[in-house]
């Protein structure tokens, strides 16, 4: 019985095909290196109870506060953490992202910090219910919230301007100021430390606002 030409061809080609396949490598799925970070309220603030009971606050000089929407420059509206190597150069941190919009994160930390201040009875965040008319309204405009990575080492930078207004007096400005936190060190690539220290800077701003409300 004669062999089929096709069968002979298959027997000759099969070993070659196996060798070729053995030398091929198929791409494998790589784990996603992206990490997400939140601004956190420092433990010193979280552990501080609000001064006095609700009744005591209502009878004291503590005021109700409306926190307007936090304003950010366009370069900070990125989902990526921002790094500044120096001068006017900006970079996005590789695989490090904010888990929430930065303006909302700053507002959240400010609200929690303000609620722990003796001069504050309660805080309503933007957008406030129409029925809730605060005695004081705070607006914050952030100028910087980033990690510095230049020749001076890894440091934080957080800066903002703020105003306190009286809604009852046609929005008259009662107090205003410029805030810049002291630079804090963080290790290169340690974005958990960077975001924690930026959270501490925001809380420091909240304490400054609380002191201004008490004056």
Computed Rg: 28 Å
Task: Give the tally of β-strands.
Answer: 8
Order of helices and strands: HEHHEEEHEEEEH
Low-confidence sequence ranges: none
Quaternary structure of the protein = single chain
Output the structural class.
Answer: alpha/beta
> What is the domain tally?
1
What is the CATH topology descriptor?
Rossmann fold
Which band does the percent of strand residues land in?
25-35%
| Count of discrete alpha- or pi-helical segments spanning 4 or more residues | 5
CATH homolog superfamily: ABC-type transport auxiliary lipoprotein component
Distance between the termini: 109 Å
Helix content, binned percent: 25-40%
Sheet bearing the most strands, described?
8 strands, mixed
Please, could you describe this protein's structure?
This protein is α/β, with parallel strands linked by helices and 215 residues long. It has a single domain (44-214), classed as ABC-type transport auxiliary lipoprotein component (Rossmann fold, 3-Layer(aba) Sandwich), CATH 3.40.50. The chain is 31% helix and 30% strand. It has five helices and eight strands. It has helices spanning 5-23, 43-46, 54-59, 102-114, 191-214; strands at residues 35-37, 63-67, 80-86, 89-98, 120-125, 136-148, 155-166, 172-180. Strands 1, 2, 3, 4, 5, 6, 7 and 8 form an eight-stranded mixed beta sheet that branches. A hairpin with a 2-residue loop joins strand 3 and strand 4. Helix 4 crosses helix 5 (191-214). The chain is elongated and about 65 Å long. The N and C termini lie far apart (109 Å). The model has no long low-confidence stretch (mean pLDDT 86).
